[in-house]
Amino acid sequence: MNQELVERIMRQTTAPLLVEQLKERIAEEHARRLSFYAWIDEQTKAEFINGEVVVHSPVRRKHWKITDLLSSLLSIYVRLNKLGVIGTEKVMVALTRNDYEPDIVFFKAEKAAVFEEDQVLFPVPDFVVEVLSKKTQKIDRTTKKEDYAAHGIAEYWIIDPEKERIEQYLLLQPTDKTYFEPYIYLRDEDITSKVIAGFTIPVKAVFDEQANMAALQGLMKG
Q1: What digits encode the pLDDT tens for the residues 26-65?
Q2: Coil, strand or helix: which one is 84?
Q3: Does pLDDT of 123 surpass 90?
Q4: Separation CA 133–CA 142 (nearest Å)
Q5: What is the pLDDT of residue 127?
Q6: Who's near 177: CB < 8 A, 6+ residues apart?
């Protein structure tokens, strides 16, 4: 697709002018991005997406309950096995053009080893989770999915609170720039991460506290 776009521009007699205009727009967007960094604080849930600041509404109980249940399983498992670090809600990931605050991120140990205590912008994660809401589901399934794949995020989970299912998107090769069709896991099935080695849980444990506790005990037993 990118090569096709380049070829379309090069067929235009005004190609040099178009490139200069694009450079100007990119410079303007970069200035807005720096202003966004100066404006954002720990209490504000916002992202910088394709040149625009997107401020998010407070999440519903159902949303943060799912995030809490899954992040507890991930955090315990990752720490016990010294695999890296898990971040929740307010970890800002800075990609080439956009800044996102995914619901959950995972960084492998070698990448996390260089993080500083006062760091506020973080590099490309190895694994990302987004919990759908009515206002975010379109961007989670389009812009973010495309951007995550383009930056080599090997595994992306989309959790649907209404249907109680998990969509698992994978890059089958490190050089891939797009996700293959997702694997869909329903409430009564188990899901296994391809990036977080050995991490397998019942999908139900993401939606049900009792199932979550049972899964947590199983992970701690090894």
Answers
A1: 999 999 999 999 999 988 899 999 999 999 888 888 899 9
A2: strand
A3: yes
A4: 14
A5: 98
A6: 149, 150, 152
Return all residues near 148 (Cβ < 8 A) that are at least 6 apart: 128, 156, 169, 179
Token pair 């498992």: residue:
77
The tokens for 167 are 């969509």
Place of tokens 């991490």: 199
**Type of residue at 50:** N
CA-CA-CA-CA torsion sign (132, 136, 141, 147): negative
> Is residue 157 within 8 Å of 128, Cβ to Cβ?
yes
Q: What pLDDT digit, counting tens, does each position of 137-169 carry?
A: 999 999 999 999 999 999 999 999 999 999 999
Q: What residues have CB less than 8 Å from 124, skipping those under 6 apart? A: 93, 95, 151, 152, 153
Could you tell me how many residues make up the chain?
222
- Nearest in space to 101 (alpha carbons), one of 113, 110, 89: 89
Give the pLDDT band of residue 1 (cuts 50, 70, 90): low
Half-sphere CA count of 181, side-chain side, radius 13 A: 1
pTM of the model: 0.92
Let me know: does 157 contact 130? Beta carbons within 8 Å.
yes
**Per-residue tokens: 174:** 């490190």
Rounded Cα gap, residues 55 and 47, in angstroms: 7
